[in-house]
Amino acid sequence: MAQKTPTIARIWRGRTLPDRADAYERYNYEAGIKPLIEKALGVQTFREDTATHSEFVTISYWGSVEAMAAFTGGDPNSIHHLDRDKEFLIELSKGVQVLRIRTSHGMVGGD
Description:
With 111 residues, the protein is an alpha+beta fold. It contains three helices and four strands. A four-stranded antiparallel beta sheet has the order 2-3-1-4.
Protein backbone atom coordinates (compact mmCIF):
# COMPACT_ATOMS: atom_id res chain seq x y z
CA MET A 1 0.00 0.00 0.00
CA ALA A 2 1.34 3.47 -0.91
CA GLN A 3 2.11 5.91 1.88
CA LYS A 4 -0.50 8.68 2.08
CA THR A 5 0.63 12.27 2.42
CA PRO A 6 -0.97 14.26 5.24
CA THR A 7 -2.82 17.36 4.07
CA ILE A 8 -4.56 18.22 7.35
CA ALA A 9 -3.29 18.77 10.91
CA ARG A 10 -5.76 18.65 13.81
CA ILE A 11 -4.50 20.31 17.00
CA TRP A 12 -5.98 19.74 20.47
CA ARG A 13 -4.85 21.47 23.67
CA GLY A 14 -5.56 20.80 27.33
CA ARG A 15 -4.12 21.94 30.67
CA THR A 16 -3.80 20.21 34.03
CA LEU A 17 -2.45 21.23 37.39
CA PRO A 18 1.22 20.28 37.70
CA ASP A 19 0.60 17.62 40.35
CA ARG A 20 -1.85 15.83 38.00
CA ALA A 21 0.26 16.04 34.84
CA ASP A 22 2.04 12.67 35.01
CA ALA A 23 -1.20 10.80 35.75
CA TYR A 24 -3.02 12.63 32.96
CA GLU A 25 -0.23 11.94 30.49
CA ARG A 26 -0.49 8.20 31.17
CA TYR A 27 -4.30 8.24 31.01
CA ASN A 28 -4.41 10.38 27.86
CA TYR A 29 -1.97 8.06 26.10
CA GLU A 30 -3.94 4.91 26.92
CA ALA A 31 -7.46 6.29 26.38
CA GLY A 32 -6.89 8.93 23.71
CA ILE A 33 -3.62 8.60 21.85
CA LYS A 34 -3.53 4.84 21.24
CA PRO A 35 -6.92 4.83 19.40
CA LEU A 36 -5.83 7.91 17.45
CA ILE A 37 -2.59 6.21 16.35
CA GLU A 38 -4.67 3.46 14.73
CA LYS A 39 -6.62 5.92 12.56
CA ALA A 40 -4.45 8.97 11.82
CA LEU A 41 -1.50 9.04 9.44
CA GLY A 42 0.64 10.35 12.29
CA VAL A 43 0.34 11.66 15.84
CA GLN A 44 2.62 13.89 17.90
CA THR A 45 2.18 14.74 21.58
CA PHE A 46 3.79 17.64 23.42
CA ARG A 47 3.92 18.77 27.05
CA GLU A 48 5.01 22.05 28.60
CA ASP A 49 5.37 22.28 32.38
CA THR A 50 5.13 25.63 34.15
CA ALA A 51 4.76 26.57 37.80
CA THR A 52 0.97 26.92 37.44
CA HIS A 53 -0.04 24.29 34.89
CA SER A 54 1.07 21.62 32.46
CA GLU A 55 -0.15 22.03 28.91
CA PHE A 56 -0.65 19.09 26.58
CA VAL A 57 -0.86 19.44 22.81
CA THR A 58 -1.76 16.64 20.44
CA ILE A 59 -1.32 17.05 16.70
CA SER A 60 -2.78 14.38 14.45
CA TYR A 61 -2.19 14.25 10.71
CA TRP A 62 -4.81 13.25 8.15
CA GLY A 63 -4.95 12.62 4.42
CA SER A 64 -8.17 14.61 4.04
CA VAL A 65 -10.89 16.40 5.97
CA GLU A 66 -13.19 13.50 5.11
CA ALA A 67 -10.84 10.97 6.76
CA MET A 68 -10.63 13.15 9.85
CA ALA A 69 -14.41 13.61 9.90
CA ALA A 70 -14.90 9.84 9.75
CA PHE A 71 -12.79 9.51 12.92
CA THR A 72 -14.57 12.34 14.76
CA GLY A 73 -18.05 11.16 13.81
CA GLY A 74 -18.91 13.86 11.28
CA ASP A 75 -17.76 17.30 12.40
CA PRO A 76 -13.96 17.53 12.09
CA ASN A 77 -13.92 20.43 14.57
CA SER A 78 -15.88 18.58 17.24
CA ILE A 79 -14.24 17.65 20.52
CA HIS A 80 -14.54 14.17 21.93
CA HIS A 81 -13.59 14.48 25.57
CA LEU A 82 -12.23 11.39 27.24
CA ASP A 83 -14.29 9.94 30.10
CA ARG A 84 -11.94 11.27 32.80
CA ASP A 85 -11.03 14.64 31.22
CA LYS A 86 -13.27 16.52 33.71
CA GLU A 87 -11.28 14.92 36.52
CA PHE A 88 -7.90 16.04 35.15
CA LEU A 89 -8.25 19.13 32.98
CA ILE A 90 -8.46 22.68 34.36
CA GLU A 91 -11.11 23.42 31.73
CA LEU A 92 -12.56 21.40 28.88
CA SER A 93 -11.54 22.49 25.41
CA LYS A 94 -14.37 23.90 23.34
CA GLY A 95 -12.81 23.06 20.00
CA VAL A 96 -9.77 21.99 18.06
CA GLN A 97 -7.73 23.77 15.45
CA VAL A 98 -7.81 22.26 11.96
CA LEU A 99 -5.10 23.47 9.60
CA ARG A 100 -4.28 22.65 5.99
CA ILE A 101 -0.63 21.68 5.62
CA ARG A 102 0.98 23.93 3.02
CA THR A 103 4.63 22.84 3.21
CA SER A 104 6.67 20.38 5.24
CA HIS A 105 10.43 20.14 5.35
CA GLY A 106 12.76 17.66 6.96
CA MET A 107 12.04 14.78 9.27
CA VAL A 108 9.40 15.44 11.92
CA GLY A 109 8.32 13.07 14.60
CA GLY A 110 9.55 9.69 15.59
CA ASP A 111 8.22 6.62 17.31
